[in-house]
Amino acid sequence: MRGKRFLLLVLLTGGAAIASYGQKTDREYLRSGNRLYNDSLFVKAEVDYRKALEQNPKSADAIYNLGNALMQQQKAKEAMEQFDAASKIEKDKMKLSHIYHNMGVILQSSKQLPQCIEAYKEALRNNPHDDETRYNLALAQKQLKDQQQQQQNQNKDEQKQDQKQDDKQQNKDQQNQDKQNQQQQQQQQQNQMSKENAEQLLNAVMQDEKNVQDKVKKQLQIQGRKLEKDW
Hints:
By secondary structure, this protein is mostly helical. Among the domains are: 26-143, Alpha Horseshoe (Serine Threonine Protein Phosphatase 5, Tetratricopeptide repeat); 199-231. 80% of the residues lie in helices and 0% in strands. It contains seven helices and no strands. The protein has helices spanning 26-38, 42-55, 60-72, 76-89, 93-109, 113-126, 131-230.
């Protein structure tokens, strides 16, 4: 990604409000901040830009340059707030192009690719000839496409894993059901055998009783014949 060098917006002379004696104007603070910024004294530059804003809270240049100073201090969130504020009051298309480009750089660095793409597109609407922004836009679009493809592949892998877990659970459930059915069949067989055994025992008892009765009858008949003969 080609990050723009956060160009400072230099004010034209004239039109500044006259501050009280001994106090700098917002433009003087802005110029002082620009010098400090160019010397890489970003913290001190931030102080002067904030002082410029105290004098003129609606200075789009001071807001934008403050965002640049914050970016150089790795304060991306705070810088984004300043760029967003500047975009709402700036009217110059070239300056708006710089603002939206820098917003795109921040969003791209934080992987907020859809928002980043929109920021670069807005920058190009204001300056269609900015090749640096065009390059960053193409790169962000490719990154988004790769990210979406990666997400799709990840979703497919997760679906396969979920399906595998479902199949495993279904097999386990089927095994448990088969085991339960087998146990029920064994129990039914045992119950059937117990019933048959009971019937067999009952038949055996009845048969024994009949045999005993038959023996008794037979014995009585023999005794009766003996008595008749002796008599």
